[in-house]
Design goal:
Length: 127
Amino acid sequence: AALNLPTLDGAPFDPQQLGGRAGLVAFWRPGCPHCIADLPRIARAASARGAASVAVMVAGKPDQARLVVQRTGFTGIVLVDDGSLRKQLDIRKVPYTLVLRRDGTAAAAFLGEQEEQTFLDALADLE
């Protein structure tokens, strides 16, 4: 399943921007407090391990997402899913976080809010 989704600004996202790095991909929605709590943890863990962080908004309006990104200080890439990727991956609940290997394949997945250490450990396991 490719991350061929538009960014928050409506521009097409090129997965090449990840530069062959491992990554954390968070599926979230603005009205979900557990999702909002996870976003800064994901960004910090990815940054600490030299990985990419991507937040895929699965429901909500771009304006809501912008507010959350500002409030949480999320520094990664924010993409907007129209529901097709969520259906393709059969994600029924958020937060849902995928740990991606350098080749873009999923190594692990977490459902629900996680501690930052969980994300750090999952990325370390890829090295």
